[in-house]
Amino acid sequence: MGEMNQRQIEDWNGPRGARWLAHHAWLDRSFTAFSEAALRAANLRAGEIVLDVGCGPGATTHEIAQRVAPGGRVVGVDVSAPLVQRARELVQGTNVAFELADASLHPFEPGAFDVLFSRFGVMFFDEPERAFAHLRAALRPDGRVAFVCWRTAMENDWFRVPFRALQDVLPHLAPADPSAPGPFAFGDRHRVERTLRAGGFANIAMTPFDAPLYVAADADESLDQTLRVGPFAGMLAEQSEDMRQRGLSSIRASLAARATGRGVTLSGAAWIVTADV
Ligand SMILES: C[S@@+](CC[C@H](N)C(=O)[O-])C[C@H]1O[C@@H](n2cnc3c(N)ncnc32)[C@H](O)[C@@H]1O
């Protein structure tokens, strides 16, 4: 392996970061139910000091800043320069700061935080156990963790529906290794529990949380949106033009089958995870 987390750092400063930046308003709207659930689990109080890991453009950092005022503050940490720049533009306040850094290596002040929070930002570490042990040291002895992460790829219709449609045309297409860093790396609850336990955490609790994700108004727009934000454009890019067109038609048909008078909606399946130091 090269330098720690290098592939993810390059991706989030490259194509994936650019896609997230271009569509974060849509992503923020789609993810609101998930952050609300994680914030409820975090049970933040005025005066607390919070670390928002993998904060991206800062929507949750902003929410946290409101909830810990007066007297509290929040630090958003992220490896992506363009996303941290956008967060700094969008979220300003005397109780908010952003760090452009790898959360698994950054020398945080020991015991500086009450709470470690994350919305979909802790599944990208090459060595999650080491990363959580490192993050734990940044928490107070009575500190706690609350984050939301995706369950498995096949439980998440926003991935499964277009992926299966693509597999109808490209039967050899395999989903990514579920244990590799990526959105579904924490899908397996036993892996999350092992990771947190190895990182030194106790009282680990995981609750399934499902919510609909609005894709777009009709099948054509939904196909465009699916290609813009998901991994599917990358999968199709490797195919011949004929297969690419067949893949697009198949994904479009799968989305059309989900269309209702209120547009296309696919479900998301997440874990709400809490633990204590
Ligand atoms: C799926 S996005 C979620 C962003 C944001 N939390 C949200 O919900 O909009 C994952 C974020 O984790 C960040 N990330 C990945 N690896 C990281 C690391 N080692 N340290 C800090 N941030 C990381 C990425 O740059 C990206 O912004």
UniProtKB/TrEMBL annotation:
Under Gene3D superfamilies, the record lists: Vaccinia Virus protein VP39
GO:BP terms for this protein? methylation
Does the record carry Coiled coil as a key word?
Answer: no
The UniProt entry, under Pfam families, shows: Methyltransf_25
Gene Ontology MF annotations: methyltransferase activity
Start and end residues of each Methyltransferase domain:
50-143
UniProtKB keywords: Methyltransferase, Transferase
Protein name, per record: Methyltransferase domain-containing protein
